[in-house]
Structures are given as structure tokens and as C-alpha cells.
Structure prediction request, 299 residues.
Amino acid sequence: MTKKAHIEQINFPIAERSIAGLACGNNHSEPVLCLHGWLDNAASFTPLMSALPSELLINKRFIAIDWPGHGKSSHRSGDAHYHFFDYVYDLLTLTETNGWQRYEQGIHIVAHSMGAMVASAFAAAFPEKVKSLTLIDSLGFICAEAKESTEQLRKGMLSRLKTAQVMTKNNQRSFSKDTAIKARLAVSDLTKENAALLVERSLVKVQEEYSWRSDYRLRTISPYRITKAQAKQLMTDINCPVQLLYGDKGMAMVQQGIDNFAEQLKDFSMSKLSGGHHVHMEQPNVLINALSNFWLGKR
Prediction:
């Protein structure tokens, strides 16, 4: 008989902030860190955790975090922004705070979309801390030509200015949970059930209605992009095994990532699954099978 996972709320104090999340499995076993995408949250991995077999629950500790500004995690301070590489520092401090550096070969990371990009940069900069990378519907980085740097900076600064002007007004808006789910469905390929999982964790109660919990500054345009040459260098410096799992109806940019970056990876495999950008939510049992085989070296 398969034991159903007990999914618990967790919280990691990091300096003056906290990183919230969900966890299941054996607290004394090696961690599997699960990283969600932009404007999602830890609930992105609830279908996976709910479907885990007893063997993995005994031998692994699955931890899905809310990135800062997302889900139930703290927002960055009022004078800060959400630079891409600051998320790499979040992973570094999380690793140090929890003593995960004691695992000589590092930890397993399972990461979706933006989380996959951050995980790739982290694995490149700190190869001793990552045992394996499973990337979901994302490979490589969002890049731009060096000649576009000035225009990117301008767009980023104007975006911050506009966001500062509308943020207070936006945070005061309230709406029903059903309205929030419909809004998420309108801009994604999520099923209603999976959209509800993500929305539930992204809301805060305001009297009889709700407001978004996520930091509005997450929507600002980045003031910089790395070049393709820089991205290739990062991918070259990843030493651990990497597997890409992507949906046949997922993001079109995944194929571009395969074309641009797959050959930089030393130990790489990939599988196309039936599904969209959130294929890990649609196909949790397929994902579990792929993870088990990958960790056992069956590719």
C-alpha cells in the first residue's frame, strides 16, 4: 500500500526575511530542492509531492520554496529589486543556513521555468553544491545582444518608475478567489485545478475578499540581460548531470535553448512529455518516474 505524502508548511529565517515553502518526506534524508517559475509558488510542486511513492518519501526530503516576493515568502526590502542573480544568492544563503553543504556531492535540484534558469546559474557558480539538475520546460537563459544594453537599461528604469507609481493603488485592490483564478487561467495554459493551487497560495485575505500576496515589483522589466556568450560560459561550467523535461505544447523558447546551449553541457539528456509549460503539474507520475531513473543513472 502506497503511503500518501504528508505535506507540511515550512519556513527558513534568512537574515531579516523568511523563505516559506512546502516539504514532505524524511527530514533526515538528502534534500531535493524544488524551484518554481516566475509568479508561481511552491504549490507548483504539490501534484508531485502528493504522488510520491513510499520509497522516495523514505529516502528523500522534498522541499519546495517560495522565491522571495512570491507565495508566502517575505518581500525584498523597499529599496531593493528582484535582480535575476540575487536569486542565486538566495540559494547560496539557503544552502548555508540549512547545512546542506555537508552533502559532499551536493543536493538534487528540480526546477521549473525561471527557477530552472536560476538553478543553472547556481550550479555553474557552485558546482560542489549541486548533485543533479532536472530542468522543466526551460534550458539556458534569456539573452540579448551587447548592443541592446542601453535600451534594456532605459526600459528597466522606466519600468521601475511606473511600478512605484501604481504599486500602492494595485495593492489596495480586492477581488474574489474565483476572479483571481479566472485571471490566472487567462494568461496561462494551466488547468482550473492547477491554477487554483497556485492562486490559493498567492492570495491574502482582505475582509471578505482577497488581494495578491506577491510583490508587484516582480513585474518590472529587468534593466540588464546577459549575452549569449556569457550564457554559454555559465552552461559550460555546470559539472553535474542535467536532464531537461519539456512539454510538447510548452514554451517555444525551449527549442531555442536546446539549439543554443545543449552542446555546452557535459552530461545531458532530455525527454519530451505530453503537456504544456506546467507539464510537471499535469504529469506528476511521469515526472516521478523520470526523476527516479535519472537519479539511478538510467537514461
